[in-house]
Design brief:
Blueprint (H helix, E strand, L loop, with lengths): L7 E5 L4 H11 L6 E5 L5 E5 L7 E5 L6 H17 L4 E6 L18 H12 L3 E5 L14 E4 L2 H12 L6 E5 L5 H10 L5 E10 L2 E8 L6 E9 L3 H12 L5 E9 L5 H7 L4 E5 L12 E4 L2 H12 L10
Length: 319
């Protein structure tokens, strides 16, 4: 792949080594030679084994669990490249940690997403490339360019192929009001499938009570669409509601980020969900349940990196 004379280098930190390797392969480049390890006291050690002077460097690292360790790995890699005179440093963050702390929900709350944005910029990042930020306005927390890629164009073709000619029986369901925009985008790409919304109330943190279904799902195949699945409480309650209250025939789910913390895997296994489709922005859990399927995001990031490096627009990827 031609980059108009630019010297492009892709490096991986520990959380996203597979994605980085696939991105490099898609671009026809070798993965940059580097080591990210720890000293005996737990401090992070970074070593680059090739020159980055004047290069456009793309550092691939999801800031998933262990979140703070992964953030520090990325920051130290950015600093090392900056001190080694890299031409441009891009932080490629498939999953952006702390994105849910994007506002003050109550008095004396931090806005941690803004803090992470400031730290990345101070470390020396020249741009950020990420996917499906929990809140799109986080892009405004940065004083450097941010490309927020969209996972829906990866997810939709899978379900189009899965359902084939029976797509007319599909209803796209948002598990809460916060995901309506995402469900609408999914619906438009799916052929303007009808939409339904789960009206729920959360009596306390991590406890979700489904109250009502806005829309008709009776006898339909349902696809629940969200940006991330964390404890899976919301998702599994929504799946139960569309089956028991709404009378749906089958229920599937998809999301960009599979955080899957706590008892998420057990909840999904015990739920009426037939299949859960995730993107591999976060490495799969070792004890993943049989209902979960992962789709690769490397082709999307590779295309975005190619466009950035050749000064072509990224937005047209999703038109």
């Amino acid at each position: 792949m031609s980059f108009h004379g630019k010297n492009i280098k892709i490096f991986a930190a520990n959380a996203s080594r597979n994605i980085a390797k696939s991105v490099a392969e898609q671009l026809g480049l070798p993965l940059g030679r580097s080591d990210v390890s720890t000293f005996s006291d737990g401090e992070i050690s970074v070593s680059f084994h090739e020159s980055v002077r004047g290069c456009d460097v793309f550092l691939v690292q999801s800031t998933c669990a262990p979140v703070n360790d992964n953030i520090m790995e990325l920051l130290i890699m950015i600093d090392a490249c900056k001190r080694a005179s890299a031409g441009c440093i891009a932080a490629v963050i498939p999953y952006f940690g702390y994105a849910r702390q994007d506002r003050k929900a109550k008095a004396r709350d931090p806005i941690s997403a803004k803090l992470i944005a400031d730290i990345l910029t101070a470390a020396g990042a020249d741009r950020v490339l990420t996917m499906d930020l929990h809140a799109a306005q986080i892009q405004g927390f940065f004083d450097i360019p941010v490309d927020n890629l969209n996972g829906v164009p990866v997810l939709v073709p899978y379900f189009q192929q899965l359902f084939g000619a029976e797509r007319q029986d599909v209803v796209i369901v948002s598990p809460d009001f916060g995901s309506v925009t995402r469900a609408r985008a999914f619906s438009q790409r799916f052929g303007n499938a009808p939409i339904a919304i789960i009206d729920k109330r959360r009596p306390k943190a991590n406890v979700c009570e489904v109250m009502n279904i806005i829309g008709d799902v009776r006898g339909k195949r349902v696809i629940l669409v969200d940006d991330m699945i964390d404890t899976a409480g919301t998702l599994c309650n929504a799946a139960k509601a569309v089956m028991e209250i709404g009378g749906a025939r089958e229920v599937y789910a998809c999301a960009t980020h599979g955080v899957l913390s706590g008892s998420a895997l057990e909840r999904i296994e015990d739920s009426p969900l037939k299949e859960v489709v995730l993107l591999d922005t976060i490495p799969a859990k070792q004890c993943s349940c049989g209902k979960i399927k992962y789709l690769p995001v490397a082709p999307v990031f590779a295309e975005a990196i190619s466009r950035i490096s050749s000064n072509r627009p990224v937005s047209t990827m999703f038109n």
